Amino acid sequence: MYKLVVWMGGVSLHTIRVLDSFGADNEVIIAYTDRTFRGLTSYEPSHLTLRHIRGMEDVEKLLADTSDYIHVNNAFKVDPGLELLKEVLARLVKRKYTLISLFQEQYPFYGFKGLLRRVKWGLIYNWGKGRGHRAIGCCGSLAIEALRKAMVSDKRLFNFIYTPYFDGPISFERHDKPRFIIVGQLVSRKAVMQTVEILKSTDVDFTLTIIGDGEEKEEIKNRISGDGRFEFKGVVKPDKLQREYLESDYLLLPSLFDGWGCTASEALTQGCKVLCSDRCGASSLIKENELLGEVFPAGDADGYRQALLRAINAGPLPIDERERIVAWSERISPQTEAKYLKQCLDYYFGKAGQLPDVPWKTI
User: Fold this and answer.
1) What is the overall mean pLDDT for the chain?
2) Three-state SS annotation for the chain
């Protein structure tokens, strides 16, 4: 049995299910600073303990009780308001607690700025506060590639992705035109406006549902106004979001950069194909299996347009194809990844001779 303390900014649907599944046969404590950070979830875990950390007094109490635990903390860079996690990491390093990283996303490693970031991340994991992290769970092959370019040893790197999960039943109905969906931040990096412009320039029939919020919201709403092929729904709660995926054929994720792209994982579990750019971490899933969708070069408007037209010309996804995608998605379920995490820890802590293959590897 392993004993873990996972230090997090908040409780997220993208991470809590796999940790709760791991806690069924192990001891897991999630030490969080803000329950509302990145979306309040109503999911109540059955196999782990939630500890709300409000300040250093709470931190010291937990540290005193968990000196023999594995601590998960890769808070090398945090959003405003989460600085406490960096201070915790500093204390864990100073006191030589056992440390690993999980859900380590890629950084943009291309271009001149990418070279500078390689140096930065090399310093973090080889000489800085990450030097003592025994294992680094990376969000997909792009995150592994990014750390390899930073000269981080391959021996420390393993795949560990976000595994969101919905509880509602899955059922499909055939419809008469392809249905696209975009979910997430409405900001320039996500290329939502580019998607709207490409699709508006066509005279073909489809629907695009846009879900989310952000600085481009009003511009998007104005641009699609009067065109019945588009629908803007704003922010949608998780229990309603599942139904939106079930009523769609394709998730669109054309981001110029995404550390992973959790909506891809969500959509696959609901039988959607994913059209995504090659700078989304989740593209590593799609590239390996054509059943799951298509990958195109980030920022390539013509390549994106051609991918969209291929999807439109193919028509709505057959129900049996959607069912095959759902069946494949069991490979990225929280329960499956929890078992995989146990095998990875067995390797890094001397109980197994080799690192296991990732469950979602194409056979």
Assistant:
1) 94
2) CCEEEEEECCCCCCCHHHHHHHCCCCEEEEEECCCCCCCCCCCCCCCCEEEECCCHHHHHHHHHHCCCCEEECCCCCCCCCCHHHHHHHHHHHHCCCEEEEEEECCCCCCHHHHHHHHHHHHHHHHCCCCCCEEEEEECCHHHHHHHHHCCCCHHHEEECCCCCCCCCCCCCCCCCCCEEEEEEECCHHHCHHHHHHHHHCCCCCCEEEEEEECCCHHHHHHHHCCCCCEEEEECCCHHHHHHHHHCCCEEEECCCCECCCHHHHHHHHCCCEEEEECCECCHHHHHCCHHHEEEECCCCHHHHHHHHHHHHHHCCCCHHHHHHHHHHHHHHCHHHHHHHHHHHHHHHCCCCCCCCCCCCCCC
